[in-house]
Amino acid sequence: MSSRILVTGGAGFIGSAVVRHLILNTPYEVANLDKLTYAGNLESLATVADSPRYRFYQVDICDAAALDRVFAEFRPDGVMHLAAESHVDRSIDGPSDFIQTNIVGTYTLLEAARRYWNGLAPKVKEAFRFHHISTDEVYGDLEGTDDLFTETTPYAPSSPYSASKASSDHLVRAWQRTYGLPVLVTNCSNNYGPFHFPEKLIPHVILNALAGKPLPVYGDGAQIRDWLYVEDHARALVEVVTRGQVGETYNIGGHNEKRNLEVVETLCDLLEELAPNKPAGVTQYRDLITFVRDRPGHDLRYAIDASKIARELGWVPQETFESGIRKTVQWYLDNRQWWQRVLTGDYRLGRLGES
């Protein structure tokens, strides 16, 4: 593949990690296309925003005319599609946005990509790639303690979020089968790391602990997730879009299965070491752990078999859970201004098209 990549959702958590990796570690030109919903934060891209190889478009992937303009102006050699609503709790409370963005938006983007691709010269057309980034949640959950999700595991989504992502996966594959669009699909495990929006488990626990607030744990905290450091994931995604086999699916995991309660306890112990000056009234961070009612349809265990991407593309995670989680806690301690502006909403001030 050649030199221009269009990243949708590039102001989000994983998307911004991909954009930073592309600008800082590769020669590619990058166009970041993001609607800038609540989860989009351009401040996560401060280190690359002034690069001559980076440009930003505030565009909704449901806006076909705007997508056509971006494709015509930027003329990408590949698309990395990360734009999505992604928080399970929000999908339970209000599934409509998930249907609109994750399903209708993916359809609209696929059609814009297909129109653009059909107009390319033969050699450029052959090199073009559409890489759809998805989640392991489309597979449902695992019953056995030794079972793993593989690329051929049947889909059995449990939440409106995972059902909408499963639908988008099927659309992407159908556009290859029906129209020949050269696609790749990746399904990843739970990501964590710097610039993670505070509604997600790990940053939520860190920031609540620093504020002396309760640390909510669903049910008994026995749910198991495979944790993947976001910068490892970004490296994997770039390997797939540049070197992956068209039509293939690659599962990306961190080889770090942890119970949710274990994750929260690990965070508390790291904060004891790295932030010993606790809020008033807090003796130990673990004392803040509070068990709350489990959410509906909560999957018990996710675990990824990532042997295919290791075997075919040579990718393996560089971070263990222990090294990655320590880096993550330290990042939140060192970057208080970033997350304080998220908590206050100041990060949304001054955006294009927003008052």
From TrEMBL:
<keyword id="KW-0456">Lyase</keyword>
<dbReference type="InterPro" id="IPR016040">
    <property type="entry name" value="NAD(P)-bd_dom"/>
</dbReference>
<dbReference type="GO" id="GO:0008460">
    <property type="term" value="F:dTDP-glucose 4,6-dehydratase activity"/>
</dbReference>
<protein>
    <recommendedName>
        <fullName>dTDP-glucose 4,6-dehydratase</fullName>
        <ecNumber>4.2.1.46</ecNumber>
    </recommendedName>
</protein>
<dbReference type="InterPro" id="IPR036291">
    <property type="entry name" value="NAD(P)-bd_dom_sf"/>
</dbReference>
<dbReference type="GO" id="GO:0009225">
    <property type="term" value="P:nucleotide-sugar metabolic process"/>
</dbReference>
<dbReference type="Pfam" id="PF16363">
    <property type="entry name" value="GDP_Man_Dehyd"/>
</dbReference>
<dbReference type="InterPro" id="IPR005888">
    <property type="entry name" value="dTDP_Gluc_deHydtase"/>
</dbReference>
<comment type="similarity">
    <text>Belongs to the NAD(P)-dependent epimerase/dehydratase family. dTDP-glucose dehydratase subfamily.</text>
</comment>
<feature type="domain" description="NAD(P)-binding">
    <location>
        <begin position="6"/>
        <end position="328"/>
    </location>
</feature>
<keyword id="KW-0520">NAD</keyword>
